[in-house]
Design brief:
The protein is an alpha+beta fold. The protein is 42% helix and 21% strand. The chain contains 5 helices and 5 strands. It is globular.
């Protein structure tokens, strides 16, 4: 069941986010090296949860969770901009130990429906082009995202 996030769900979705992002932080560490990684990610075990908490503090109405058998197994944050007609899908993850398929698709479908109800024209989502983000790219494409812009960010040690 997809539903609005409640205050009592926040610690659970912070935990899911922290655990789900570990492979991405592994990739960042491998790519950037220890020095640059340490400057970008203060504490890989809590930073995603801190972002989720901050989002809850600002926009509790823009977080959905997926609950199965009274257990939260995934979440999605989103932003609605009625002036521009855009909806943004933000942080989202499925519990890495869940073992169920289709949770992300259910979450995206619920958010996209909300965007339509709000009268928005476009939805967008951002993700990395690296191997660690490949599952996210496939999930977004399955959800119907079909216009892509690719970016590259370069770093140089001074």
């Amino acid at each position: 069941m997809i539903r609005a996030c409640r205050a009592e769900d926040v610690e659970t979705i912070k935990d899911i986010g922290n655990r789900a992002w570990q492979p991405i932080y592994d990739m960042y560490l491998d790519t950037y090296g220890e020095d640059l990684f340490a400057r970008m990610v203060s504490d890989r075990h809590v930073i995603k949860g801190e972002q989720i908490q901050s989002y809850w503090d600002r926009r509790p109405d823009c977080i959905y969770v997926c609950e199965i058998e009274n257990k939260i197994v995934g979440f999605v944050t989103f932003r609605i901009d009625t002036d521009s007609g855009f909806g943004d899908i933000g942080n989202n993850a499925v519990d890495p130990t869940c073992g169920l398929k289709g949770i992300g698709q259910q979450l995206y479908a619920a958010v996209l429906e909300r965007f339509r109800e709000e009268g928005l024209t476009y939805a967008k989502v951002g993700t990395g082009l690296d191997d660690a983000h490949a599952p996210a790219r496939r999930a977004y494409e399955r959800a119907g995202f079909d216009i892509a812009q690719q970016d590259v960010t370069y770093y140089k040690k001074l």
